[in-house]
Amino acid sequence: MAKIVLKNVWKRYGNLDIVKGFDIEIPDKSFCILVGPSGCGKTTTLRMVAGLEEVSSGEIYIDDLKVNDVPPKNRDIAMVFQSYALYPHMTVYDNMAFGLKLRGYSKKEIQQRVNEAAEILSIGHLLERRPKQLSGGQRQRVAVGRAIVRKPKVFLFDEPLSNLDAKLRGQMRTELKKIHERLQSTMIYVTHDQTEAMTMGDKICVMKEGIIQQIAGPIELYDNPTNKFVAGFIGSPAMNFIEVEVLNKNGTVYLNEGTFEIKLPEAFKEKVLQYCGAKVTLGIRPENIYDKLFYNLADKEICTFSAAVEVVEPLGSEIYLHLNTGKNELVAKVDSHNKAKTNQIIELVFDLSKCHLFNAKDGVKII
Question: Pairing with 2, which of 154, 163, 237, 276 sits 20 to 30 Å away (CA)?
Fold first, then answer.
C-alpha cells in the first residue's frame, strides 16, 4: 500500500482558486475522508491525486515518489466514481476483468483475482449477469470489485454511495469498512455526507471553499471543533448557535441571550474575560439540551431556561424538539419517553460542560 502526501497544493482555473494551499499526510493503510459542502474542492483534490486534473502548484507524493507529472495509468491507483460506469453489454465478470485484460494478465490470474474480489463483495452468484439485471447496490459492488482486482496502492472513492437509498447507503458503508479492514489498503473517500465521514473514516479532512478547516479523527472533530464551521458541519442534528453577550458581574462571567442568562463555569472564565461587553456565539449540541423534568439537577454546571415547543419529531428511540426562546430557535434531542407537545412552554437545561464559544467575527473557537 502507500502513504500519500500533498504539499501546498493549489488548483486554479484562470483567476479562480478552487483548492488553496492543501497540506495533508495520509498514512499507509488509513481510511481518509475529504468532507465538505458542494463546491469546496474535495472532488478536484481527489482528481489531482488520481492525475485526472493537473496541479497548478504544489507537490503530490505517493510512496515518497512525486507524481505531479506521472500519468494516471502509472500511479497505481484505482478510482470508484459516483456513477457506476459499467459496460452495459458485458457481464459482471467481464466488467471486472476488462482492465486486467488490457494490462496483459493471464486468464488464470484474471480468474483468480475476479473470484477473490467477488467473494469479498458477496457477488459471486452475479458474475454472469449484465448491469441492467442488477440493483443499484449490486452495481456499486461491481464497480468496487473492478477496483479491487487491480490490487492498487491507493483506492479513491468519489461519492460512491450518493445514488443509493438510505438503507443501501448504510449497508454499503459497513461493507466498505469491512473491505478496508480486510485489504489493509490506503483509501481516500470524498463525500458531502457527515454521517459517512464520521462512521467510516479514521482521518477526516473538513474543507470549505478550497481550504482545509480541520484534520482529525471523528471523535476529536465532534468534541473539539476548531471553528464554528466545523462545529456546525459535524453532528446530526447540527449544533445550535446562539448569539450572546459576555457580562462580568462581580468577577463572575455570564452569557446573556436576552431571555435568559448562563453562568459560565469557572474553568472557562479566564478564556472569556477579554470578551466582556462583546458578542460571542454560544454553541450547544441538541444532545446536550435536556428536558428539566428528566434531568439530574444535582449537576452544578447547568443552565435552566424556558422555550416554546414549535415542532415535535418522534424518531422511535429519540425525539427532536424544535424550540423557540423568543429570540432564538433551537433543536433538542431528548429521550422517547418525553411527552412535550406542540405550543407547550417547557423548562430545559443546558449541560454547560459541553458548551462551545466562538468568536462572533471570524468563528474561531474560544472554548
Answer: 163
Q: Is the peptide bond before 314 cis (omega within 30 degrees of 0)?
A: no
Beta strands 65-66 and 77-80, pairing class: unpaired
Q: Do residues 113 and 102 touch, judged by C-beta distance below 8 A? A: no
In whole angstroms, what is the distance from residue 124 CA to residue 155 CA?
Answer: 22
CB atoms within 10 A of CB 82: 16
Q: What is the mean pLDDT of residues 252-264?
A: 92
Domains in the chain, start-ordered, CATH in brackets?
4-233 (3.40.50.300), 240-359 (2.40.50.140)
Q: What does the CA dihedral 92, 97, 99, 103 come to, rounded to 10 degrees?
A: -170
pLDDT of residue 32: 98
B/e letters for 176-214, b = 16+ CB within 10 Å, e = fewer, are bbebbeeeebbbbbbbbbbebbbebbebbbbbbebebbb
Among candidate residues 56, 65, 59, the one with its CA nearest the CA of residue 18: 56
Question: What does pTM read for this prediction?
Answer: 0.93
